[in-house]
Specification:
- The complex is a heterodimer of chains A (368) and B (186).
- Helix content of chain A is 56%, strand content 13%.
- By secondary structure, chain A is α+β, with helices and mostly antiparallel strands.
- In chain A, the strands form three sheets. Chain A has a five-stranded antiparallel β-sheet with strand order 1-2-3-5-4.
- By secondary structure, chain B is an alpha/beta fold.
- Helices cover 45% and strands 16% of the residues of chain B.
- A six-stranded parallel β-sheet of chain B has the order 3-2-1-4-5-6, with helices on both faces.
- In chain B, α2 packs across α3 and α3 crosses α5.
- Chain B is globular.
- Classes of the chains: A alpha+beta (368), B alpha/beta (186).
- The interface between A and B is medium-sized, with 23 and 22 residues.
């Protein structure tokens, strides 16, 4: 990050925290000194396909009993809408008549709009260890439990779909194809030119279009579009969902896909285990739907990083171009139905660790 | 009396079918797959993109329509296929019981009802649904309840559940034997 952008970001962060501190004090909460979730690359993060704005994730304490809490706050209108939408989704999830299981969620302690801020305070879920520090079988069991909880909500009738559309949004095959086109345009516009990447994206698009029936076949399921360890926590063997704003009714394997693409970098054996599980227990159509969704989400990843390039410079710019190259290689491997090579993973991780800022490295500690 | 050693045309009407995940969806698919080895099977159900089974005809009525339209379309599909079938096999549930009631008045076909869906059973004890359920049950040649046995999962990091899978196969063997026996006597 250049000095100017860094200084700007630090200034904004300090101002927001100062404003929030005094508001929160009146509401009976205080901020902890250490705030890892507003550091590093957090400032360039913006979801592509869900309502997303600038918001701060802060750690604090309730004054009366020192209870540790998570405070989400936004002065940005889009951020405020995201928090409000998340609240609506949380409430709706509890009342879904066509769901067979539900997620555990942290208790909401306060939701308010005050002095230009939308503020949501929830209990902090302490966990004995991070997700990736747990044994592999436990990681698999937790992830599978999370996917099954999502799949248990299946909107099929007209009434279900109307309700799902009103609150969560519904994704069908046309949505996936259209947004993939949007990803492709964003990538071509913002990322450095790469002929191989263009060809791979065209191939992916053709495959998605050819098999839109298979995509459609498994839509209508509750799916968390950002189901990765920093969006859930585990306490006493129970998975608590932290981010409800990313819940949609779409292809059930979209959630699996996001998780698998993430773990391809962080824990490849977990991805192999998930792939084997689907192959052993689900239909061939479902196995293929999983593959299609992974390809779709790789397109989104590429578009995401392409979109960050205009917001950053220096080492972060270099890092995000390296990320685009890396995820292009992962897309290539996925189209060939194989995992990315160990060399590809190691080379990327080495470069990433060299280019990542100290702040971002600190933010990443304990995140997954 | 029907002779089930001959090829029979069996129409299976079910409210749920994969990609639906709740029972009797997976049960119905597995039943159809196994019965199709010796019989001609047609499945009538609700859905947009049902999971196909080689050699089995599946007629799926989209659920996105309003209820009266869904029920009418399923009734028409049932009449059309039941007319040329030997047996109508019904998984219980109001969304197929009403069409089956209509079919039973119009088409002289033996009706078998499998009352495996506990939620549907409870829902059909009172009111209009109860009336329809009782009407259809009175017209059935045979009713039985075989709570579906879910297929044991093969989990990574665990030993393949050979015993549970063998038990699952034995359960299905018993299930198919019983269904074939019922088909013989309706």
């Amino acid at each position: 990050m250049s000095d100017i952008r860094l200084a700007q970001w630090q200034k904004e962060r300090e101002r927001e925290c100062k404003n929030l501190s005094s508001i929160l004090l009146k509401l009976g909460f205080g901020l902890e000194e250490d705030q890892p979730h507003i550091l590093g690359e957090r400032y360039v993060m913006r979801a592509l396909t869900t309502e997303s704005g600038n918001k701060l994730i802060l750690i604090g304490r309730r004054k009366r009993d020192n209870l540790r809490v998570v405070i989400k706050a936004a002065s940005d209108p889009a951020g405020g809408r995201e928090l409000t939408h998340e609240r609506v989704c949380r409430a709706a999830l509890d009342n879904l008549v066509f769901a067979y299981q539900t997620f555990a969620t942290p208790q909401e302690l306060l939701f308010t709009q005050q002095d230009g801020y939308t503020i949501s305070v929830q209990e902090f879920i302490e966990q004995s260890s991070t997700f990736l520090a747990r044994p592999l079988p436990e990681q698999f069991a937790l992830a599978l439990g999370g996917f099954k909880a999502q799949e248990s909500a299946h909107a099929t009738t007209r009434a279900h779909l109307r309700r799902a559309a009103r609150i969560f949004g519904v994704r069908d095959a046309a949505y996936y194809l259209n947004t993939f086109d949007t990803f492709t345009r964003s990538i071509e516009k913002a990322a450095p030119s790469d002929r191989q990447r263009t060809v791979l994206l065209k191939r992916t698009r053709a495959l998605l279009a050819e098999h839109r029936h298979t995509i459609s076949q498994y839509t209508g399921f509750l799916t968390h579009t950002d189901f990765v360890p920093h969006n859930f926590r585990v306490r006493n063997g129970c998975l608590y969902l932290l981010d409800h704003s990313s819940l949609r009714f779409g292809n059930k394997y979209e959630s699996w896909a996001r998780f698998a693409n993430f773990m391809e970098l962080y824990n490849p054996p977990l991805v192999r285990a998930l792939e084997q599980y689907v192959k052993d227990n689900r239909t061939p159509e479902e196995t293929f739907s999983f593959t299609l969704m992974r390809l779709y989400r790789l397109g989104e990843l590429l578009a995401y990083y392409a979109g960050t390039l205009q917001k950053c410079d220096g080492d972060l710019y270099k890092l995000n171009t390296v990320r685009i190259t890396f995820w292009t290689k992962v897309l290539n491997a996925a189209l060939e139905n194989r995992p990315p090579s160990v060399d590809t993973l190691v080379a990327y991780q080495t470069t990433r660790d060299a280019l990542r800022s100290t702040e971002e490295k600190y933010r990443q500690l304990g995140l997954h | 009396m029907l002779d089930s050693s001959k090829l029979m045309h069996i129409v299976i009407a079910t409210p749920l079918y994969p990609p639906d995940i709740a029972e009797p969806a997976p049960y119905t698919k597995e039943l159809a797959r196994r019965l199709s080895k010796h019989h001609r099977i047609t499945i009538i159900t609700y859905g947009e993109y049902p999971e196909m089974i080689p050699g089995v005809t599946i007629v799926a009525i989209p659920k996105r329509h309003a209820l009266p339209i869904r029920l009418t379309r399923l009734s028409i599909a049932l009449i059309r296929h039941a007319r040329h079938a030997d047996v109508l096999y019904l998984n219980n549930g109001a969304s197929v019981e009403l069409p089956a009631a209509v079919v039973s008045l119009m088409v002289p076909i033996p009706l078998i009802i499998h009352t495996s869906d506990a939620r549907a059973n409870i829902a059909s004890t009172k009111g209009l649904r109860g009336m329809v359920a009782r009407f259809v049950q009175r017209r059935a040649r045979h009713m039985f309840s075989f709570p579906p046995m879910p297929r044991p999962e093969i989990l990574p990091f665990e030993q393949r559940p050979e015993e549970a899978l063998a038990r699952y196969e034995r359960w299905w063997h018993t299930q198919i034997t019983e269904v074939e026996r019922i088909l013989t006597y309706v």
